[in-house]
């Protein structure tokens, strides 16, 4: 099975490809995204594209942003909605939808955050995804993407994210948005062994909680008043 054929709902039910919870589910926002939230870099309304169990959305809501999390997995959406109720965060709502065909919120969002969704999309769906996000974003909206860099996973791994280099990321996103920066940044994941490659040791450091720090990129872009609609 390839990443493009991943059973995402199975992954969130914890009976899919992974042994236990999905490794990207670290129980909190990725540190670089948490830093953006603390700095007030994400402005209401926020679209959390591929929100998973909603930790980024919930952190944004706790910081007084109105946020809509969009996720393909029903299981993940149900989890996020329960968490919002438990935390008393009525300004975080969640929608089960395919982000590549997402519609109904044209020009609404002042910020869009993609925390590790981009590399999970089939490469041939990237353009449709970017069109959907561009349509949903307001003029002047900030767009942040956190994505695995090329080389994050071994080439021989059968099912792995569709990693990117900086040029590839710039070329894809730059068709629709004005790129501000692309910079290296780590992505944390709870990984002890790679599926199908139990003897491969990844050459990355772990943080203080034992989470592997994979190489990634943080992109920041803005929607201009011109460009492809």
UniProtKB/TrEMBL annotation:
Domain Methyltransferase: 46-137
UniProt cross-references to Pfam families, sorted A to Z: Methyltransf_25
Cited InterPro entries: CFA/CMAS, Methyltransf_25, SAM-dependent_MTases_sf
PANTHER family associated with the record: CYCLOPROPANE-FATTY-ACYL-PHOSPHOLIPID SYNTHASE, FATTY ACID C-METHYL TRANSFERASE
Protein known as: Methyltransferase domain-containing protein
Species: Mycolicibacterium aromaticivorans JS19b1 = JCM 16368
